[in-house]
Amino acid sequence: MVERRQVNVDPSWPLAGALASVARERGWDVTPAEGSASVLSIDERPVELPDGVDLARLRIEVILGALIDRLGIEPVFGSATVIAPAAGMCGPAAAGPVDSVRIGSFWSGDTVGVRPVAWSARVVTAQQSRCWLVVADFVGGWPDGTVVTGDLAVLPAVVSTDTARASQFQLDRGRGTAWPEVLLLDTPRARRGRLPVLAMCSDGLVADQLLDEALTSAKTVDQ
Length: 223
Prior knowledge:
This protein is an alpha/beta fold. It has 4 helices and 11 strands, in the order βαβββαβββββαββα. The chain has helices at 16-25, 52-71, 163-172, 203-222; strands spanning 6-9, 29-32, 39-42, 45-48, 77-85, 101-110, 118-126, 132-139, 153-154, 183-184, 194-201. The strands form 2 sheets. It has a 7-stranded mixed β-sheet with strand order 6-7-5-8-11-10-9. Helix 1 (16-25) links the parallel strand 1 and strand 2. The longest helix is centred in the N-terminal third of the chain and has 20 residues, at 52-71.
């Protein structure tokens, strides 16, 4: 009999719903926890979760890192504009700017992934978005016209014209609202040594990364 992992997460933590969804997808048992919203428990072992500014920065580090790793590229630098859900989470927004795009913070750092890459990004928020839309530009010296998709799926043209259709496409595929993959909205093609990438993801991507890190931390405690 396969032992099921027990995960406890406080519902008030910003990505609690996405983390619970990803954990259940892995076959883990998930129950709500009370106490510190930024502490996850795996098999009764507490693991600190990022929150506030730390979580905001980690989102971009994970999103850009996932693009780099799954495209299979080794850029020297990456820049991006990230259009984020106004409520800070995917799904219907309960709060946020109405009929506006709100200019957010400018961030920089190193990506999370196989090989850290320096990046900078501007974040803007939009009430209408139910996912994270990323307009990225990677510098790497590719010959003009080089097509790079790696192991990422390019969405069909009929659904890639806007994020509402793309999000509904994921729902229709049974992926829910917290799918952990990155999806390309068009085929990346190098221009003048740079690779422009248009992609989207959900909160499930960051939740999936945090679950992996929490599992590693829990194993470290056991050793």
